[in-house]
Amino acid sequence: MESEFISTMVLTFKLASITTLILLVIAIPLASFLVFSRMRFKSIVETIVSMPLVLPPSVLGFYLLLAFTPSSFIGKFLTEHGIRLAFSFEGLVVGSVLFSLPFMVHPIQSALAQVPVSIFEAAYTLGKSKLETMIRVILPSIRHGLISGIVLAFAHTVGEFGVILMIGGNIPGETRVASIAIYDEVESLNYALAHQYALTLFAVTFAILLLVYTLNKKSLGGIR
Amino acid sequence: MIVINITKRLDTAEGSINAHFELNINYGEFLTLFGPSGAGKTTLMRLIAGLEKPNSGVIEVEGEVWFDSTQKINLPPQKRSIGFVFQDYALFPTMSVRENLLFAADNSEQKGNIDELIELVELTALSDRLPSTLSGGQKQRVALARALVRRPKILLLDEPLSALDPLMRQKLQDELTLIHQRLGVTTLLVSHDIAETVKLSDRLASVESGQIKSICPPMEFFSPQALSGKLQLIGEVLKIEEDSPAVIVTLLVGSSVVRTVLSSAEASELRVGGHAIISTKAFNPILIPLP
User: Fold this and answer.
1) What per-residue confidence (pLDDT) applies to B229?
2) Which of A76, B5, B90, B156 holds its CA 20 to 30 A away from the CA of A113?
3) Domains, chain A
4) What's the CA gap between A94 and B41, in Å, rounded?
5) How many interchain CB pairs under 8 A, A with B?
6) Is residue B291 part of a domain?
């Protein structure tokens, strides 16, 4: 029982870490697009990104599950390529990335929007490419937005329940994450173990947030 | 020689106008774009820098074509040898003074000149500070030094001194003159400050609603009457007080306040906030050195 507790916690944080990392890579270009693009369909993209904020997790989970089943068009394509997303860890990652997207994109988007245009232009007039400007000038100056995004996406993934239950089920060591485990243990009246999971999540989340906000405050003190 | 002959559609408060800028700038010259706000001065600078695209025309800098609508040439700002000083300084907030300059450098030679530039703008003691800890005048000097790191063919200054207090302004004007003399870089300044224009520029291009109306030495523009042997000062009218039968006019000349008495007829064309030439004939001015 003890080792199952450990493996569940490891799985939970592994899922959150991988999800956060993927989101970080996706969210920076996506947020830049939302801030700087003048394309007409921008509001559609913006709406889709924000949908998980208001959509019940079970709705997203339900449609993902339908998409992942081998009988569906996407599922068939995935199965042919040897990928199984329904009731697998990979499926959880896809679901979590979609569901936590706004939590990563929004802080980065609002931080980017606050960078004066002249900062970009100054770097261009100094001969620097858009990519170099982004990496060396813009990302360091929006780091509080990046940190908020990372923390929110991570914490949100750790706490996610609905989507994961729908597409992942409850397979120990594969898709059984802590939030599901708590529910499961309570169902089987195993309060002590439920408590162990709950308290661990509570403590770890509290510690991460506290650490990040302390660091963030310190680094911001240098600029402001 | 810099040859500019471009058109650009401008959206102003009075609707859109077709701006046409035709202008030649000599190598090493200090030219000021002077005119009311919304005339297109900043736009012209941004067109030269490649931050905006002209609708048609040619920009050629020392034989190198930067823009040519017929040949479809439009160099991006990265490929143009420019130094641009923005109105809001646009310093990189996470880099120290020295790092801001280092970022601009392309090669070790330019890196090697950074200490000299920092010294030139008197920031040696502050070179490890972050921009947020600097005053407006200090930030301005960092922006200026940063724009000079790459030894640009043309230095573009977009109202760089407008946000500073009068004393700091004068100091920086002196510094600009010094830097221009030392480095001899062709400089284009946007300004609507008469004193600044007269003090700094070789020539003045007056810009009005998207056109260059005239190009001449600044004194010729502000004081076209060719009267010699006369003391002439340009001042800003601060106050006009009726004191029958005369009128007392208070003017700001440089940083000193001057009062003078006029007849009502003479004062009728003056307005508060406008500029006027103060001249005295018939008397020789007496200059007494100050301690």
Assistant:
1) 54
2) B156
3) 2-113+139-223 (1.10.3720.10)
4) 52
5) 64
6) no
B266 shares its domain with B211: no
Average pLDDT, stretch B170-174? Answer: 86
Whether residue B202 is found in the same domain as residue B269: no
Query: Are residue B239 and residue B120 in the same domain, yes or no?
Result: no
Give tens-digit pLDDT for B93-138.
999 999 999 999 999 999 999 999 999 888 999 999 999 999 988 9
Query: Considering only CB atoms, which chain B residues are within 8 Å of A119?
Result: 90, 92
Interface of B with A (CB under 8 A): 49, 51, 76-80, 82-84, 86-88, 90-95, 103-104, 106, 130, 132, 146-147, 149-150
B135 & B102 share domain: yes
Which position has the token pair 């010294």? B119
Q: Which of B82, B87, B132 sits opposite A224 (nearest CB)?
A: B132
Q: Which residues fall within 8 angstroms of residue B5, CB to CB, at 6 or more apart?
A: B21, B22, B23, B57, B58
- Structural domain range at position B202: 2-222
Domains held by chain B: number? 2
Asked if residue B37 lies in contact with residue B49, where contact means CB atoms within 8 angstroms, the answer is no
* B-chain residues near A129 (CB < 8 A): 78
